[in-house]
Amino acid sequence: MFRLFLLLALLFPGQKIWAFQIDIEASQNVLHQTVVKYTLDDFSSLLLKAQVENVSVNGNKNVKLVILLPDIQEEKYAKKVSDQYPIYAVKDRSYQWTGRVDGNAYTLELKAYSYEGISAALYGLLQEVLGFSFYHPRESVIPDLSKFPFAKDFEYGSNPRFNKMGFHLHLMHPIELTEALLDEDFPNGEQRIKEYIDWLARNRQNYFEFNLLNSINLKKWIPYAQKWTAYMLERGIMPGADLSLNMKQQYAFKLYEYPPIKFRTKKKQVFKRVQQLAQIPWKYWNMEFSSTEFSSGNAKMKSKLRVYVHQLLRENKIQLAGREHVVKPETMVNKNAFQGLDLSDSLEKYRANFIHTVMFYTLNDSLAPVYGNKNLQHMRNKLLHEQEIKETWYHPESAYWITFDNTIPMFLTPYLNARLEDILYCDTQKVEGHLEFSSGWEWGYWLVDWSVANWSWSSEINGKKVEAYPTQYFDKIVKDQSARDFFLATSQLQDTIIKAQNLIQFLTAATVTDEMPFDKNLPLHPMPPYLYKDIRNKISLQVVDSLYQHTLPLLVKYDSLYQSYRSQLGEEVLRHPVVREMVESLDITALRARHRTATLKYLLQYRKASLENNSYMKNDALRYLEQAKKIRLQALEIVRDREANYRYPVEELAYQRPSKTVYNFGYLYTAHRLHFWEREEGQALNNKYTFRYQNIWDVLKIIGLK
């Protein structure tokens, strides 16, 4: 047999000896559906890239593989979570494949209930059965299908865990698609957006939302947005907008300005802007009615405008939604504003609610010390309550840009475990929708988004449920067992020490709200029990000893255990680009722990020397800052290697540049310089612990006063 194929290869050089042909059989009714047409074109193109010889539609029946698509006469709608209140209905996207041997050919027959279900089924077949991995908008794994992939009969089916599932790209931050989505003159912007829309479709998502900002040129932007939002609908994806009534923060798009523009009343401004934006085929508006996420504003006035906005949106067939923040009402600036206010029942039952949580914490974690909370279980209770009375989605994060993860940078793998836990929990509670808050993809965070997209489906192959687990989609791409073992061990280490034992409180960097004067700091992310300025200047010898005994050993333990796992990983496995990216992202996270150890040792020895009036010990402490600098320079080498492999131009992501956001640099600007690492060294040395020290934030812009 081998000699025969060798002879054929010599006689017909360049021919695909093992290749086979595929014919897709479908009715003209199905083929004329736009969502099916786009998917079939993409499906065929991907198979040809995978070394399939030819893919035809209603063509040659004498082929190795025949794919039969159902002739859908009437599409079915997904089962509603509740009939007790109005809900935006979507099509049933579940599907089942049956594969069988038919003589010399193989037949794959699809059972689906909507055209969007056919699209999802074709992409599910590619990714869950045939070995494709659509892990990033600009990168995919294309398998070699030159050898026929089916040997025997099989069954494969999948059901969406949520009727609506998708991503919110947080364009208040200068991330990969911010300028493309908001600037009609951005070079190749439409192409970049369509890459992402295709990624959503390939990963079987049906919703895409992003922030509108007040910095857009509305007249020019609307025709631009109409083109690619139309493409979204053609691909089976609902467009959504995140905007505000009059939010002051971070250039949020406002429906009215105050003082008013051209002497128009608030109501007239709202009417004009709604009518302008309604030229775009939005399905949802995720509206912020407060002036900031820490206040509710003039509640009576805004409730009247809310009713008016709701009326206008219903006339334009747009579903109103709102985000529920993690800040508890009693901690808001005007916490009593809504007491005694009679909000319209008809409005509330028609308004979808997006229950938002932050960082890598789950709805059920006992410890989540963020935004002044002990945990986020009040958001879980809110979700369970709200879905009894209105359409409710869960809205967690896959990255938290400001001084928590990719800004520093660190790759925090607890996001994987947390997002899976919450998805499975929300599935059991029959939550209507899942909307992931995405804030950047580099430094490994694409893996969180890709995993979430796939975990949003529940699949069976040959009667066996496909079990979901946190490192599942790393394992899908990476076949080397040593790399898999390393990634699993490191992920478990981070879950145990960084999250459960709260080491994260020492790994985050200080942000403006941490360093406000007069002890008015707002604890947005996990914070140490003592401010660093107090460790240097105020704490007692007893506290110094406690930090020596408990905090420093935990930092050292994390770094030491990580290095033990890392030492078992051979250098040859780093040739795999995904392995190299993940290892470098985890390496720099360990270096972050080592850097914090060094700066903390300096502060503790300096304080102890001050308490004991020991000038020699105080001067000797400087060696720890020298160590911190060496660690930072070592980490910078990793940054440079990663920057050479960013999927979008490094000049956009990591340098200073103009932006539609309040930040005139890319979201990885602080990572490029290791800004926070160097700042912490300078703070320790110079005793400078105000937000103005080496400040990169335009605070007045951010809070809306400029």
Description:
The protein is of the alpha/beta class and 706 residues long. The strands form three sheets. It has an eight-stranded mixed sheet, covered by helices on one side. An eight-stranded parallel barrel has the order 9-10-11-12-13-14-15-16, surrounded by four helices. Strand 10, helix 7 and strand 11 form a beta-alpha-beta unit. Helix 6 packs parallel to helix 7 (218-234). The model is unreliable at 1-17 and 333-343 (pLDDT under 50).
For the biggest sheet, the summary is: 8 strands, mixed
How much helix, percentage-wise, in residues? 40-55%
Tally the beta strands: 18
- Judged by helices, strands and strand pairing, the structural class is alpha/beta
Straight-line N-to-C gap: 76 Å
Proportion of β residues?
5-15%
Q: Rg from C-alpha positions? A: 27 Å
Shape, principal axes of CA atoms: globular
In short:
By secondary structure, the protein is an alpha/beta fold.
Please outline the helices and strands.
Layout: H1 2-11, E1 21-25, H2 28-31, H3 34-49, E2 54-57, E3 65-68, E4 95-102, E5 105-112, H4 115-129, E6 133-136, E7 139-141, E8 154-160, E9 164-169, H5 178-182, H6 189-202, E10 207-211, H7 218-234, E11 238-244, H8 266-277, E12 284-288, H9 299-315, E13 319-324, H10 345-350, E14 352-356, H11 377-386, E15 392-395, H12 414-428, E16 433-438, H13 445-455, E17 457-461, E18 464-465, H14 472-477, H15 481-500, H16 504-507, H17 532-537, H18 541-567, H19 577-612, H20 615-620, H21 622-643, H22 650-654, H23 669-673, H24 675-686, H25 699-703
Parallel strand pairs: 1-2, 1-3, 3-5, 9-10, 9-16, 10-11, 11-12, 12-13, 13-14, 14-15, 15-16
Antiparallel strand pairs: 4-5, 4-8, 6-7, 8-17, 17-18
